[in-house]
Design a protein that fits this description.
Blueprint: H1 7-10, H2 23-34, E1 41-45, H3 52-65, E2 82-86, H4 93-103, E3 113-118, H5 125-136, E4 142-148, H6 156-159, E5 163-166, H7 172-186, E6 189-190, H8 192-202, H9 206-219, E7 224-225, H10 227-233, H11 239-250, H12 254-266, H13 271-288, H14 301-313, H15 316-332, H16 339-351, H17 353-361, H18 364-372
Parallel strand pairs: 1-4, 1-5, 2-3, 3-4, 6-7
Length: 373
């Protein structure tokens, strides 16, 4: 039986052209190599799963390939001039001293020796200090590429000696497009809504998106990734729940809203996640109110049509008031002694927003007439 290789490894980029969503960095690095303007120390910063280590490896290979050395671009190629150190497990002074000792020897092949230090923020202060002198005045043949998810933990004296590159969270549309390409290569039928949902859940991390994609493909018997199987596997509330709850709240149907919330809880979803998702839903409806902000709505086209339809039926004042109530519920949820009642109370308040607004618009004379009748 052939060994399974996860998509994050199987489709790891082997050149800058295949890196997703980081064109501002890959273009700069390519130009630096082409113009021979390479710094001797780089610091790659950004969230997990956005391509820091991948870009470091590509850069390391390209540096020596530019000098005429033929290097296999596959992941398993062990270039003699590339050294990787995981600072999470090698963070002592002795580990850095061993690295510094290696730096003293020039490369056997090519022009440069490249040292990639991952999770560099995990180094101890003593290790940072031991590394400082070498980083400040490295030999002409040594290049250091440091990678970290927490730049603020790297001491300023290290930062000042590096050329810093900030990696972005990868946009939902870029992740979704990349997943569609992989699905096509793997012979997997994938619904666009499902891929979009995976991309949203990944929160800007391509590696997380690929892991989720693998999970859902494995769950499927016929190698089909559907929207339904995706929400079941990732334990995500279907958009339909939020549309139904909003309709119930807008028409002051409190009992329907509470019954829907009870159903959501019985299906194993958390009340806090529900109220956060509901406020996000109100935000998306507000975004649909103006064509200029429609681009901020990161959902598939079919769901976008549903949002546009419901946004046309709900008033701006209702959405603003409901959003404010939902946000207050979110902030105070963890301190509540009765979380379920806390959310239910918020839903009741939202249901009577329109009534409160109508009363506020009514003049005092009209109120007196209604009271006396």
């Amino acid at each position: 039986m052939e060994n399974f290789v996860v998509s994050a490894r199987k489709y790891r980029p082997v050149n800058f052209e295949s890196v997703v969503g980081q064109s501002h960095i890959t273009t700069t690095l390519e130009n630096a190599i082409k113009d021979n303007h390479l710094a001797q120390a780089f610091l790659f910063c950004g969230p997990r799963g956005v391509g820091k280590t991948t870009c470091a490896r590509i850069l390391a290979r390209m540096i020596n390939a530019e000098e005429g050395e033929t290097i296999d671009a596959s992941e398993n190629s062990a270039a003699l001039n590339i050294y990787e150190l995981d600072a999470a497990s090698n963070n002592s002074v002795d580990d850095i001293r061993n690295l510094v000792d290696q730096v003293r020897y020039p490369p056997q092949y090519g022009k440069y020796k490249v040292y990639i230090i991952d999770e560099v923020h995990m180094l101890s202060n003593a290790a940072f200090n031991a590394f400082l002198k070498t980083l400040e005045e490295p030999p002409s043949y040594a290049i250091f590429i440091l990678a970290t998810t927490e730049k603020h933990k790297v001491i300023p004296t290290i930062l000042s000696r590096c050329q810093i590159f900030d990696f972005n969270r990868i946009q939902v549309k870029d992740i979704s497009r990349h997943l569609a390409k992989i699905a096509e290569k793997e012979g997997v039928k994938a619904e666009p809504e499902a891929l979009h949902l995976i991309a949203q859940k990944a929160d800007g991390a391509l590696r997380d998106a690929l892991s989720m994609f693998d999970l859902i493909v494995t769950f499927s018997n016929d190698r089909t990734v559907t929207y339904k199987s995706t929400i079941d596997n990732l334990h995500i509330l279907d958009y339909d729940y939020y549309f139904k709850v909003t309709d119930a709240l807008y028409t002051q149907n409190v009992s329907s809203a509470l019954i829907l919330f009870d159903k959501i809880l019985r299906e194993g979803f958390d009340g806090h996640n529900f109220i956060v998702g509901l406020t996000e839903h109100f935000r998306n409806l507000l975004v649909c109110k103006d064509a200029a902000t429609l681009k901020l709505l990161e959902v598939s086209e079919d769901i976008q049509k549903k949002y546009a339809d419901q946004a046309g039926k709900t008033s701006l004042s209702f959405l603003m008031s409901a959003l404010n109530i939902g946000n207050s519920c979110d902030l105070n949820y963890k301190s509540s002694k009765s979380p379920r009642l806390h959310v239910e109370l918020a839903l009741m308040k939202m249901a009577y927003v329109n009534a409160a607004l109508n009363m506020a618009e009514t003049s005092p004379e009209e109120v007196k007439k209604k009271v006396t009748q």
